[in-house]
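hey m, so remember when u said the tokens were messed up on ur end? i reran from scratch. heres the input so u can diff it against urs
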Amino acid sequence: MKNKRFSFNLIVAYDLTYNKTKATDYTKISSEIIEQIESSRFIGRTSIKDEIDYLAQENIVSDNEAHIIFGKGYAARRNAVLYNAIKYKMDY
């Protein structure tokens, strides 16, 4: 049952170099959970690279700044999740 006041969205940023994982380790979600959420976004290396290229090309941030924000490690993945939440107007 969808609540009109709330929208639950799933954003997962993953790193395939972590413990030799594969994309499905992060993207395989049970159908029960899928039914409960409004949307899901999975952020891997390609989507991060595309966003870095876009931000630099549009002169929103420099290429160097974008790589600092979305580089490697836990903080960079957290930044990618927060950035996507802001980009898609998710406020909580």
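this time it looks ok to me. The beta strands are 9-13, 39-43. if urs says something different then somethings off w ur setup not the seq
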